[in-house]
Amino acid sequence: MAAALRRELSTVQWTRVLRGPVTSKCDMRVSADGSLPASGGGVDCRQYKLAVPAGQECPATPQGRVLDGQDWRCNGSMFPAGVSGQLPQLVVGGVGELRSLLGREPSPAAVAALNSGGMVVSNPVFEKDGVTTLQSYDVRQSLPGPGSAVVYKPLSNTALPAVVDAPDVPVPFYGVIPPGTASRLGIHFDNSVLLAQLSAYPEAAEQDRASAALAQIYRIQAMGFYVEPGADRTGSELLWLIVGISALITLSAAGITTGLALADARADHITLAGVGAPPRLRKALAGAQSLMTASLGTSLGVGAGVVPAVLLIGATRMFAVSVVPWLPLLALLVAVPLTGSALAWVFARARLPVSRRSAGT
User: Fold this and answer.
1) Can you name the residues that pair with 41 across neighbouring β-strands?
2) Is 112 within a domain?
3) pLDDT tens digit string along 158-196?
């Protein structure tokens, strides 16, 4: 797989095989009476997660709604609890695996913990007094949780010495446990994911070629290649299209408003010219009127869009990271009004033709 990626992508900097717990011959079928197939004979349906110590639970309503999205107990890796990703939730490995997951050098305390058989957890919410609790559960035995969540009844609870080394971004994994400790606890693990660091975001054609190459290895047409996109990349073109349409509407409205204002104030401008006002004053008034109109329109429009977005992000903070599109917002709030003002100044006539009636009065 690593060779296939390097062949199709010239931006691969390094690769790392991650190992994680695996189920062995797990039969997920349920009998007509609701009973589960018996374990034994090499059958293993266990998975693993970290327990949240008492007092460190994320404050939530009985329906599972977060009370305070800013609370440290509601943020970080693997929160909301149980949210999974492309990585094994429990990574079996050492300092090299931890370094790849963090994207930097691990702390000395984390290195010491792994070398001594302890565990490095990715979120301080799972550690208390230097200890974390590793829980095993049967994937066939789920229970209804708060809201639409699914919980599992723990089969075992194992206390392990632990050190926190949190990644800079909420990477979805509980932590790293040494292979010797995993074997001692009876955890069956094997190669799970090939992690690759790219120096540049691949184009769609490159992703298609990489997926096709991996499909040849798997011998099935399945999605085997995933690139973490970070902030929404596919929506950027749509966002700028919205900015362009908004700018067109704003400039049109500002131009019409400025034209009507100039026509309505024609007599005043003639009077100003009669008392010695310079010709450029009319152009300056047109630019100022357009600037005020466009600024008011874009401010109201951005406010109408930002306020609901902020409320939505506040309600779903645990499920997404907010990314503010500063450049499009600045384009709407600053560039569009200035452009409208400049256009009004350029196209407004500096001198008015004085009619005979006006000249006679």
Assistant:
1) none
2) yes
3) 999 999 999 988 888 999 999 999 999 999 899 988 898
